[in-house]
């Protein structure tokens, strides 16, 4: 009988200890520090936000486009695609605050793809260079309305043609940087020269500016160029672009409903010639295709005869 009572008392003590231990563990699990974090999901320009907070009594969202919300889990539709920084400021029960941020890239328009994520802490513009691999869309064209292929050149252009084929591999090295605020710069690298037109160089420098005339059969060369300080660029998403062309009535031709890039002063992108405004045919986050015009006839100085349709890639 005594043994049975002893076992009963021992079991009761153990049970009380376990209950006390479990209760203590449960209490400690509820004692989380005040915190705030963000979870989000994206569909086009629509973003569903969740404020993952502990011990918070209030939430303030700044969506980065001039609008705000005090919901804990808001859904926000941005009016325009682009880069944004969304900020959550959570208020704790004691009045303290915690802040969390998330960077968003939403339905990026061409300008954002061209200039890169200006909200990044290390933003230094977005830099491009001519792709030596080329693409199936790269070719040497006539400056006619259809940009038809030039019969004397391979179509599409094979990889590295300006290097292995024409001995001007340096044209693949030059870098062109676009900034979100509309400023622009480029680096002509060690040779101090730019991909250029042969007729243009003779007309403007008497040929003294020519550094490498390996592409002379196609009216191409490299010519000395000093990039301008404080240069700017202008992007137009849709316009009718008029050029001087031997294929147009009265020496003029209009490309309708095209996207264009134009530059201040003597600046240009990719190819240095009389016409420095270019057509932006296509752009993704990693590549873009430009149409750059060329005046290759000494009989019509400054009037375009051809065009270079070339792919550029992002410099990593």
UniProtKB/TrEMBL annotation:
Keywords: Signal. Residues 1-26 form the signal peptide. Coiled coil: none annotated. Pfam families: PKD_4. Residues 53-102 form the PKD domain. This is PKD domain-containing protein. It comes from Pricia mediterranea. The lineage of its organism: Bacteria, Pseudomonadati, Bacteroidota, Flavobacteriia, Flavobacteriales.
């Amino acid at each position: 009988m005594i043994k049975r009572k002893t076992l009963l008392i021992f079991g009761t003590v153990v049970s009380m200890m376990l209950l006390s231990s479990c209760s203590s563990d449960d209490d400690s699990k509820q004692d989380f520090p005040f915190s705030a974090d963000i979870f989000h999901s994206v569909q086009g320009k629509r973003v569903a936000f969740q404020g993952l907070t502990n011990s918070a009594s209030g939430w303030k969202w700044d969506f980065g486009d001039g609008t705000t919300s005090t919901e804990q889990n808001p859904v926000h539709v941005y009016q325009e695609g682009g880069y944004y920084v969304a900020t959550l400021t959570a208020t704790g029960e004691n009045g303290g605050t915690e802040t969390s941020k998330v960077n968003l890239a939403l339905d990026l328009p061409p300008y954002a793809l061209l200039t890169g994520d200006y909200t990044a802490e290390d933003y230094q513009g977005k830099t491009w260079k001519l792709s030596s691999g080329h693409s199936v869309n790269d070719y040497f064209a006539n400056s006619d309305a259809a940009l038809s292929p030039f019969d004397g050149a391979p179509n599409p252009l094979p990889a590295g043609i300006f290097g292995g084929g024409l001995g001007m591999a340096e044209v693949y090295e030059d870098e062109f940087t676009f900034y979100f605020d509309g400023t622009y710069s480029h680096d002509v690298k060690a040779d101090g020269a730019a991909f250029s037109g042969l007729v243009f160089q003779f007309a403007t420098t008497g040929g003294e500016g020519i550094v490498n005339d390996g592409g002379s059969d196609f009216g191409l060369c490299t010519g000395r160029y000093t990039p301008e300080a404080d240069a700017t660029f202008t992007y137009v998403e849709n316009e009718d672009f008029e050029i001087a062309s031997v294929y147009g009535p009265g020496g003029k031709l209009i490309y309708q409903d095209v996207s264009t890039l134009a530059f201040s002063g003597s600046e240009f992108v990719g190819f240095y010639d009389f016409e420095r405004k270019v057509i932006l045919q296509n752009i993704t986050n990693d590549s873009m295709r430009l149409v750059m015009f060329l005046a290759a006839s000494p009989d019509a100085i400054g009037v375009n005869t051809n065009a270079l349709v070339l792919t550029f890639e992002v410099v990593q």
